[in-house]
Specification:
Blueprint lengths: L10 H7 L8 E4 L6 H9 L4 E6 L2 H10 L7 E5 L11 E7 L4 H5 L25 H7 L2 H12 L4 H11 L5 H9 L4 H4 L7 H11 L2 H11 L4 E11 L2 H13 L3 E3 L9 H6 L7 E7 L7
Parallel strand pairs: 1-2, 1-4, 2-3, 4-5
Antiparallel strand pairs: 5-7, 6-7
Bound molecules: S-adenosylmethionine (SAM).
S-adenosylmethionine binds next to helix 2 and strand 2.
């Protein structure tokens, strides 16, 4: 495994968001990745404990290594957060959605159109259908609908038609090349790569991302003790809309943020991923935590 690299987004805002957690509280990090946010929380709040989840076994190895200095306060579980049920009340829950920079830049994981690799895109490479299986199996209408719904891609029908004409596909760059050909040349070389939205759609479906997010938003508030904090970082409008709606309508929660917290200009320059990050925070209703 190469060195795990991932710069956590909105880190200082995450750390301050959990300031009200009691000193011996437990925070569940549903998407621990390389343990970036978790290590900052463990440093800032010297008695809290963290339960860390990740469906990617490689991320769990990286997080364990990174968090070794705090190992007595950390419990790692390699699982999808949709399959998790806590056995203790939680003072905080953190969710940092999507893929890590490490996953994105590992060619063999197949997440990026920038690196030639197998069209895989599974966050947990030990189970489920790959992106190649998916696009080689679906019919043209199903493909167009998927690309439109989860990629918000205007050219979904044209892209689906070209995919069907040119399949089977096995590699990321072959697929990206065919998608780019669906765009007029001046857009093809624009700021956003033409394959961005289709790749987003495929990744969302391969990993069942919207369903597991909906499930987590429905169940996790009841895992919190009164006054407990739930913070979610999303990276595109399909995720953020769900988080916003859920925080607004959930009778168990009070919103701490009414507008999402976004990165400042300095962070946006340092960390490209932060440009699309939106953090929303809410608090479980009831008495405030007692220390
Ligand atoms: C953006 S990274 C998290 C980075 C982390 N906050 C840090 O600071 O290092 C997202 C991580 O969440 C994991 N992930 C995404 N969806 C998941 C799910 N449904 N269940 C468990 N882990 C998930 C991914 O495998 C990835 O490692």
């Amino acid at each position: 495994m190469d060195t795990f690299h991932h710069l956590p987004v909105l880190s200082s805002r995450i750390v301050e968001s959990f300031a009200s957690v009691p000193s011996y509280g437990t925070i569940l990090d549903c998407t621990i990745g390389g343990g970036g946010h978790a290590s900052l929380l463990l440093k800032q709040y010297p008695n809290i404990r963290i339960i860390g989840l990740d469906q990617d076994p490689e991320a769990c190895v990286a997080a364990r290594k990174h968090l070794a200095p705090f190992r007595h306060r950390v419990k790692m579980i390699s699982t999808n957060f949709a399959n998790f049920e806590p056995s203790e009340p939680l003072s905080g829950i953190l969710v940092d959605l999507g893929v890590s920079s490490y996953q994105l830049t590992q060619a063999e994981r197949g997440f990026s159109f920038r690196y030639k690799g197998p069209l895989d895109m599974r966050m947990n490479s030990t189970e489920g259908e790959t992106a190649a299986d998916l696009i080689n199996r679906l019919d043209e209408t199903e493909l167009a609908n998927l690309i439109f719904k989860y990629g918000e891609e205007r050219l979904s029908r044209r892209i689906a038609r070209r995919i069907v004409q040119n399949r089977p596909f096995a590699s990321t760059t072959d697929l990206a090349y065919v998608i780019a050909g669906c765009y007029p040349p001046k857009v093809r070389n624009g700021r956003i790569h033409p394959a961005t939205r289709t790749f987003q759609a495929l990744r969302i479906v391969v990993n069942n991302e919207m369903q597991v997010l909906d499930q987590l938003l429905a169940t996790s508030p009841s895992w919190l003790t009164p006054g407990g904090i739930l913070g979610v970082i999303s990276f595109h409008s399909l995720e953020d809309r769900r988080v916003k709606r859920s925080f607004l309508n959930d009778q168990r929660l009070d919103r701490v943020t009414h507008k999402p917290i976004i990165a400042d200009e300095f962070e946006k320059k340092q960390n490209i991923r932060s440009r699309s990050a939106k953090l929303r925070i809410c608090r479980r209703k009831g008495d405030e935590h007692q220390d």
